[in-house]
């Protein structure tokens, strides 16, 4: 009986672990860090995100307007546009409190590049 009870307890704990709610990452807030791209450029980065009408909205370094959604418990998809017409398509995640963005940019003349940004909360 003891063996059966132990097995039952293990099974109950396993099922509870699988069905327990998982805390979603919190993307909202002020972020700072560093960006780099495949053109050899790099620099300081900042990102301000907030929830608005069920989606994420924000401002990225140098006035890029962003909008998008949280696509998973720790992932987001954002699109953005700079005043000069450059557009951005970004995929991001939070891991161990750090946000990672991978983005593709398209300039008005049609040229493209990709980049990466590593951000942490600005506290």
What this model shows, in words?
- With 123 residues, the protein is mainly beta.
- The protein has a single domain, classed as Lipocalin (Beta Barrel), CATH 2.40.128.
- It is 15% helix and 57% strand.
- The protein has one helix spanning 2-19; strands at 29-37, 42-52, 55-60, 64-72, 75-81, 87-95, 98-106, 112-121.
- The longest helix has 18 residues, at 2-19.
- The radius of gyration is 20 Å and the shape is globular.
- Mean pLDDT is 85; it is low at 1-23.
Q: Key terms for this structure?
A:
8 strands; globular; single chain; 123 residues; mainly beta; Lipocalin
How far is it from the N-terminal to the C-terminal residue, by CA? 54 Å
Can you tell me the CATH architecture?
Beta Barrel
The residue fraction in helices comes out at: 10-25%
The mean pLDDT is 85
User: Mind summarizing the main beta sheet?
Assistant: 8 strands, antiparallel, barrel
Q: Which overall shape is indicated by the principal axes computed on the Cα atoms?
A: globular
- Overall structural class, as computed from helix and strand content, comes to mainly beta
Whole-number total of structural domains: 1
The fourth-level CATH homologous superfamily is Avidin-like
What fraction of the residues are assigned to beta strands by DSSP? Answer: over 45%
SSE topology:
Elements: H1 2-19, E1 29-37, E2 42-52, E3 55-60, E4 64-72, E5 75-81, E6 87-95, E7 98-106, E8 112-121
Antiparallel strand pairs: 1-2, 1-8, 2-3, 3-4, 4-5, 5-6, 6-7, 7-8
Task: Summarize it.
The protein is mainly beta and 123 residues long.
